[in-house]
Design a protein that fits this description.
By secondary structure, the chain is of the alpha+beta class. It contains 7 helices and 10 strands. It is globular.
Length: 274
C-alpha cells in the first residue's frame, strides 16, 4: 500500500474512532502493513482524534522503529502477530467501543444469528481470553480464532478488527459496536428474533459469492442439529454470573444477557429512588 495513502487513512480512522466514542483519552491503536516487513502505526500516548501525518511511526516486523519522531504503540506486538498469522490482512484497528466492550467484560460473545449484514460481514464475534496489554499475553488467546474471524472481543479490554485496508478494518469496528447496541436494546425490549439455519445458509452463500472469509458455523444457529458439544462448534461457550458477579456454570447467551439486563435495570431503579 502507498505510504502516503496509508497515513491519510490512519489519521482519518483515528478521527472517526475518537469522534464516535470508540476510544477515550489516548486509548486504541491503528496500523497498516505497507510492505512485507514494514508497518505504519499510531504512536503511543496520543489521542487518536488529533493525529497528524507526521505523528505516525514506521516499524519493522520486530516492532523496532524505522522512522518517525514518536514511539510506536505499546500494543504493536498484537498487530504484528495478526499480520504474521494472516498474510491477507493489511490493517488492524484496536479500540474500546463501550457497548461491545461491555459484552467483553460480561463474558458474552456476539455470536447470535440476528442481523444479516453481520452474518455476511463478520459471521460472529468471539471473545479472546484476557491477556495483559502491551505484551505477548494479549496475542496468544486470539490464535484459535484468527484463521476464520475478522473481529474479536478482548476479555476485560476492548475489541480488535482486521481488514484488507485501514478503512475496511475500521468499518468492521463500526459494525461490531452497532451489533452490540442493537442486541442489547432488543434484549431490554423483551428479546430478539434469531435467524434459522435455512436463513443463515442463504447468507453464507452470499458471503461465499462475495469472497468473504468467515467462520463455520457462521453464528450460533438456534435450530442447528445438536450433533456436537458446544465447545466443538467453533463458537465459544458462554459463562454466567453468580450472585457475587463471578463466572459460574455455563448457560445460554439469552439467560446471561437477561441477567445482565435485570441487574442494570435494578441499579437504575435504585438510583431513581435515592
Amino acid at each position: 500500500m502507498n505510504l502516503h495513502r496509508a497515513k491519510i487513512d490512519i489519521v482519518e480512522a483515528g478521527r472517526r474512532v475518537y469522534g464516535r466514542g470508540f476510544v477515550a483519552s489516548n486509548d486504541g491503536n491503528i496500523s497498516c502493513r505497507i510492505e512485507e516487513d514494514r508497518i505504519l502505526t499510531t504512536p503511543t500516548g496520543m489521542s487518536k482524534g488529533f493525529l497528524k501525518l507526521e505523528d505516525l511511526c514506521l516499524v519493522d516486523m520486530d516492532g523496532a522503529l524505522v522512522s518517525g519522531q514518536r514511539r510506536p504503540s505499546s500494543e504493536i506486538g498484537m498487530h504484528i502477530f495478526l499480520y504474521c498469522q494472516r498474510p491477507d490482512v493489511r490493517a488492524v484497528v484496536h479500540a474500546h467501543p463501550p457497548t461491545a466492550t461491555g459484552f467483553a467484560v460480561a463474558g458474552v460473545p456476539l455470536t447470535a444469528c440476528v442481523l444479516p449484514e453481520v452474518v455476511i460481514a463478520l459471521g460472529a464475534i468471539p471473545i479472546a481470553e484476557y491477556g495483559t496489554p502491551g505484551g505477548p499475553e494479549i496475542s496468544e488467546p486470539i490464535r484459535q480464532y484468527v484463521k476464520d474471524y475478522d473481529a474479536y472481543l478482548l476479555e476485560n479490554h476492548g475489541a480488535t478488527t482486521i481488514g484488507v485496508d485501514v478503512m475496511n478494518a475500521y468499518y468492521k469496528m463500526e459494525t461490531l459496536e452497532h451489533f452490540a447496541k442493537i442486541l442489547f436494546v432488543a434484549k431490554q425490549l423483551g428479546g430478539y428474533n434469531e435467524l434459522n439455519a435455512e436463513q443463515v445458509s442463504k447468507l453464507v452463500a452470499i458471503r461465499d459469492r462475495m469472497g468473504l472469509r468467515g467462520p463455520n458455523p457462521a453464528c450460533d444457529i438456534p435450530d442447528a442439529p445438536a450433533t456436537q458439544p458446544a465447545s466443538d462448534s467453533g463458537i465459544p461457550t458462554i459463562r454466567t454470573l453468580s450472585a457475587g458477579g463471578a463466572p459460574t456454570a455455563q448457560t445460554s447467551q439469552d439467560d446471561l444477557i437477561a441477567e445482565i439486563t435485570r441487574r442494570v435495570m435494578e441499579e437504575l431503579k435504585r438510583g431513581d429512588a435515592q
